[in-house]
Amino acid sequence: MNILVINGPNLNLLGVREPGIYGSQGFDSYLQELREKYSDRQIEYFQSNHEGAIIDKLHEVGFGDYGVVLNAGAYTHTSVAIADAISAIKAPVIEVHISNVMRREEFRHHSYISPVCVGTIAGFGLDSYRLGVEALLRIEKKSL
Ligand code: DQA
Predict the structure, then answer these.
(1) CATH topology of domain 2-143
(2) Of all atoms in ligand 1, which is nearest to the CA of residue 22?
(3) Among 56, 68, 87, 112, which has the highest number of CB atoms less than 10 A from its own CB?
(4) What is the pTM of this model?
(5) Is ligand 1 within 6 A of the CB of residue 48?
(6) Is the CB of residue 132 below 6 angstroms from any atom belonging to ligand 1?
(7) What is the distance in A from the centroid of ligand 1 to the CA of 97?
């Protein structure tokens, strides 16, 4: 299984954006750490601030041998279209959030994508992505 990490809107600003909530590490250096940790794996990365681009990417990989770790950012709380894309594809998708969305504003408590993802990981900082990768590896093991 190839692993694809997708980051949605504003997550290109990690390290700079609201460091009190999202931390001060940029995603590039975190991704490097993640790739080193799982050096026997291909970990691909895609970031977009555009809903349609995220949907196109899900369609592109969703029928291949892929597992997806998805932080849809604010689209989590608004996008029926991304939820439909996840439902449409075969690849397992793990929803991740850096912050604990349930401890934040009420509009962040609802996720359109949770019901169509395998599961949700939130509140562990950037480590949420590693936990997402671990979840995919467990799924892969079970399906062997
Ligand atoms: C986020 C939480 C969302 O509510 C927010 O819009 C984000 C980041 C997180 O990773 O904690 O952009 O997905």
Answers:
(1) Rossmann fold (3.40.50)
(2) 11
(3) 68
(4) 0.97
(5) no
(6) no
(7) 6
Interval 25-71: pLDDT, tens? 999 999 999 999 999 999 999 999 999 999 999 999 999 999 999 99
Please identify every residue annotated as catalytic: 22, 97
Relative to the CA of 11, which ligand 1 atom is closest? 12
Q: Given pLDDT bands bounded at 50, 70 and 90, which one contains residue 17?
A: very high
> Where do runs of H (alpha helix) occur along the chain?
19-22, 27-37, 51-61, 80-88, 127-143
Closest CA to 136 of 70, 49, 47, 84: 70
Nearest to 76 by CA among 4, 3, 144, 8: 8
pLDDT of residue 50: 98
Between the CA of 60 and the centroid of ligand 1 the distance, in Å, is 24
pLDDT value for 144: 57
**Structure-token pair, residue 82:** 């991304």
Backbone φ and ψ for 6, nearest 5 degrees, come out as -115, 130
Would you kindly state where each structural domain of the chain is located, as residue ranges? 2-143
